[in-house]
Amino acid sequence: MKNSTLLLVAILTFFLFSCKDKPGPITEIKIAAPSNDKLSQAIEDIAEDGVIILEAGEHFESEGIVLSKKVKIRGEDGAILRFPTEPTYNDTTPMDAGLYVLNVEGFCIENVEFIPIGPIGGVSIFLDGSHKSIIKDCKFTMDQYPIVMDRSNNVLVENNEIRCTEKFASGEFNWSVHGILIINGKAAEIRGNTISGCFFGAWVCDVGGTFENNTAYNNYIGVIPCAVPDSGAVTPRESYTWTMIPAKDWVIRNNELYQNSWYGILTFDNATENLIENNNCYQNGGNHPYGIDQGADIGLGGDSPMFFGFHAFPTHDNVVKTGDYPNVTIQDCGFGNMIEGGYVSLDTALIKCLK
Predict the structure, then answer these.
(1) What is the pLDDT of residues 261-278, one digit of tens each?
(2) Is the pTM of this model over 0.85?
(3) What angle (nearest 5°) sits at the alpha carbon of residue 342, between those of residues 338 and 343?
(4) Domain boundaries, the chain
(5) Are strands 240-241 and 233-234 parallel, antiparallel or unpaired?
């Protein structure tokens, strides 16, 4: 009996000391600047739901990161994240992403500035199958695609400053330079962002999104509810993707869109039942890259058989209400659309419909 008691005490003592010495999960990591490849290491080390803090200064990564763990990345004021991403020059090359967030629900990044290591970057953040993610208070400079989403529902993109590379105007990238690209993703919320220097400031697809209180200027088109055609795009995991449902039931409201070369807002390629309301649109249109006198503040796209190599179908049953901005110019080339206010034109010698 005495030996049994001694054995039990020894076992309990062993387990007590083992538990005491065992480290707990790492829930917060702070990375000092400058740093090299520290973010990728921190993502590997941190526990699920952990927080990674980037101190002010530059943080370099030698390659893109595939993130498959729910974490929050938060930058101190002045934190800069730099990846060696490259742009793509055709629709058959996989997009090159700095942060490729794959199948993570609830990822969050805030207050980080993205600057590519090279002169022009590829994708800063690609959300793939990552529902309920948040991109907030960040800054994006000189990327081909700052933010891309596919198969990601209920994403919030808020209060970001987005500036693409303006080299798209030369046609160098086949016009594929877009600030926010939603290929597939329901109920996205795009709020309070400033977007400039892109071909499409925001290319939004799928169902039930909101584009509100944003500013888009010096793009070719400020925001385009549309569809990514079946020629598609290639994700960083080398799979083709395209839009399953063209833009439907989007609310585009209370934005400021000005000095965009073609349109401030253009519904296109089967976009339907969207509400465009109370947008301050001015000085948009009239500067088509092919020299055509075309465009308006708001356009409702018609049948366009040869739009950059694919057939875009008419948009229909959309609602436009100019609200506080009665001088907005509107071009209706679709059918079944309802327009309240503004100056409305059809396909005329003065303003041509997009074909």
Answers:
(1) 889 999 999 999 999 999
(2) yes
(3) 100
(4) 276-355
(5) antiparallel
